[in-house]
Structure formats: C-alpha cells, structure tokens
C-alpha cells in the first residue's frame, strides 16, 4: 500500500511575485552602486560578489551589471568569463542581442567554434585569436581556459590596447557561476582587470572536490576551492545576497531554505498555483499506484519515494533494481501523457498570462530528466530512456538522462533522481557533497521525485557526527546528518515494495 506522509517542514511566511523579485532588484542595485563607486575611485572595492541560491536569476543580474558598467564614464571595455562554454555561449547571445554584434565578441577556441549555436553567432562577433577581436568590442566573453592560455594577456593587450584604466585590457572582469571556478584558474586571469565581479550559486559543484586539499604549504589554502571564498572576508570585497529564487514552485521553497539556511529571508517569485502538472485522465486506470505518486509530484511538493524488498544493487549508487522501479513508474505516466502549466512573469515578477506544454509536443527545456551520480549509473539510466523512447515513440525533449555534475546550470520541468544516500552504509565526502545533492534537488521548475532504497532515516540516525564546512567553503559543503535530516523533512514521504499494488490498497496518510 502506498502511503504518502506530508512534509514535516511546511511553507511558512513567504512573499511572492513582484514583492519577492524586488528583493533581488535591491541587492543588484546595491552591487551596481558598489561597482560604480569602485570605477569612480570613490571606493576601494576590488571584488564584488553577488551570491545566489539556485534559480535566483543570477545571469539576469550579471547582464544588467555589464550594461551598467559600460554606461560608466571610466569603463570602456569589460571581460566576461565562466568555467564552461555552455555558460558563456548563451550569455554572449543575450549580451549581443542587447548591445549589438559589433560590441560583443565571443572569444572561443577554433575547435569549439562549430559548437556555437547559430542564434548566438547571429548576435555576436566571433574571434578565435586576440588579433581578431574588433576594435568596436566593448564586451569580450570566453571561458577561463581561453583567457589563461600562455601569452594571451600580452597578445590581447597588443591587439586591443588598454581599457579606460590605462593599464589592463579590461576595466571589469565579470565571472558567471563564480563558485564553480576554482581559485587557481581565477588567479591566472584576474590581472585582466583591476575589478572583478563574481555572480553565482554558492551551491554549485566545483570542478574538483574542494574537500581535497593537495596544497602542502598551507593547510588553510586550497587552489581548487571556489575562488570567491578566498576574498569574501577581505575589506576590499563587497558582498550581497540575492534573497529570492525564480525557478522553483512555491511548494518547493522549504527545500530551498533547507539548503540555504543562512539566507534571511529566502523567498520565491512563483506563487502558489503558478506552476502545476496536469496528468492524463487515463493514468489511474493504467496504474493506480503510479497515479497516486504522480498526482502528489504534480502538486509541486518535493516527494521522496523509498522502495523496500529489492535485490542487492551492484553498488550503492549503481542500482539497476531501483532504476527498474523508476522505469515501471514512468511507463504509465508516459502512456497517459501530461501537460505542464506555467504562469509567466514579467521582468519584475508580475504574472502575465500562462503557458502550457504537452508531453506529446515538448519545447524549450526537457520535460523530464533522470539524474544519477556516477557515469555507470547514468549509462544505465540512458539505456532505460532509450527503451522508453522506443516503446512509446517519445518526441525529442520529453525524456533525457544525465549525471548530476553535467546537469548543473540546466533546467527541466520534472526531475527524477536516485538519492545520493540510497543504499549507503555511511556518510562520505561523495554522497554527502552539498553541491551534488543541491544540484539534484534544484533543477526542476514543476516537480521533484527522489527515489531511494528504504533505510535513509536509520542511516542518518546511526551516522556519527561530522563537520559540515571543511576549509570554510560556502554552505554545508559536506552535509552532516542533521542537515540531511532537515532536507528530508521538506519532502512528502512514501514507501512501496517493487511488487504491483492493487488499486484498492492505494491510500494517503
């Protein structure tokens, strides 16, 4: 019998829509004012950090800050960088559409040029060498690896000359997804401008686990940690937090707050009822258990389903029997179909109409993504997706699989993921990484389902106490058991056995 128990932590006081979005607007305005003061010489800020929770609209804030910087009399040219091309390409397209192709140069390696989407190329000037950057360019955007190529700084200074500061090629260096860029990469490019602005989610997974410190000279210093943590406490650093998130449903806000307890407050632009999933009428007839489960997920409240009585897994995070349960649950949903319903919001958070996307004709972000931790696990998930695509002749964009690490920065309507602690015997650095679980739980705009083997509560009750913030990393980088318990308390909980459940045994607690 499927029993669903509501979350222990319910949504308490929160604001939505324009009132919530205004908090981000104020924080961004304060960061813009700090940048303007630094450019004017009226302040000593060398680093400006705009910290965000997942889905806070940080890229929107970065684009605005770029435009505001270029309006300043002392700023003639800026650089924008990030760790990955999948971050720089859309930013380049957005900036080019706003400022003009002659003013925005996408600085990209020749072998990655074919990967740039046509809609981006139409809005920018592409350059694979410093000598190809046009004199009209006010924004040069590229990944950190491209900027740090040996001799690139000197070549760029020769090609385009110094910016308004008279010494370096740019007046401001903007770093998108700043908490994903490790310190050693940032220090290789920070001399491109006298002022750096970092915008990003403090819960992003860095390229290398920050808990692993290979530095032998100073145990408190780690070149592989997120670079803003090196500067956040310095007097020359200005820090602001974005206090609202745009991505989640209102029902998911307690989960976001569980991940970011230091945010005071943390609100959600989407209000109650702004996002929903309408399930096909035939779903209860096809499978009553699946209907009960997906009906709960469709409300927008995060759901954790624990499965008992399974055969042993290959490894705690490589679990074909558990993935088989996911496949069984997905089949009736895909057969019956569903529709996502989304209230549109303007740039300041006011609702303005709605949008519906059917599973028979998906568009935009993928509707369903299945997330796994290890490559082998996602290989198994990809095989499952391929079977379901063939069985139901699914259209592109309806169902995909990915590793958690690869999916950060991406968005989808419905997330289905194996909980990192499923089947574990203890908490370790991998299964308790803040960023891995945070990315897993914060991609969805409409619904979230985590699946695990039964026993999470016992695992956490028996786990020894452990520190949660090694090396001073932001957030609870390695989640202690208390934080895991707080996060789980924001989920609706359910438990099933892998055998079919008769319709008359489906209930709600």
Short key terms for the protein model shown above:
7-stranded mixed sheet; 8-stranded parallel sheet; alpha/beta; AAA domain-containing protein; P-loop_NTPase; Rossmann fold; 16 helices; 2 domains
Please describe what this structure looks like.
The chain is α/β, with parallel strands linked by helices. It folds into two domains: 3-10 and 272-279 and 299-337 and 359-465 and 474-498, P-loop containing nucleotide triphosphate hydrolases (Rossmann fold, 3-Layer(aba) Sandwich), CATH 3.40.50; 17-245, Rossmann fold. Helices cover 31% and strands 21% of the residues. The strands form four sheets. An eight-stranded parallel β-sheet has the order 5-4-6-3-7-8-2-9. Residues 470-475 and 500-509 have low confidence and may be disordered. InterPro entries: P-loop_NTPase. Residues 465-484, 489-509 are annotated as: Disordered. This is AAA domain-containing protein. It comes from Nocardioides humilatus.
Main pleated sheet? 8 strands, parallel
Estimate nothing, just give the exact number of structural domains.
2
CATH architecture call of the largest domain: 3-Layer(aba) Sandwich
Based on helices, strands and strand pairing, what is the structural class?
A: alpha/beta
What's the CATH C level of the largest domain?
Answer: Alpha Beta
Q: Strand order within the widest sheet?
A: 5-4-6-3-7-8-2-9
- Helix count equals 16
How much is the radius of gyration in Å?
24 Å
Average pLDDT: 90
Cα shape: globular
Report the uncertain regions: 470-475, 500-509
Please count the beta strands (DSSP E, at least 2 residues each): 20
Name the helicity range: 25-40%
Question: How far is the N terminus from the C terminus?
Answer: 11 Å
Q: What name does the CATH topology of the largest domain carry?
A: Rossmann fold
CATH superfamily of the largest domain: P-loop containing nucleotide triphosphate hydrolases
How much beta, percentage-wise? 15-25%
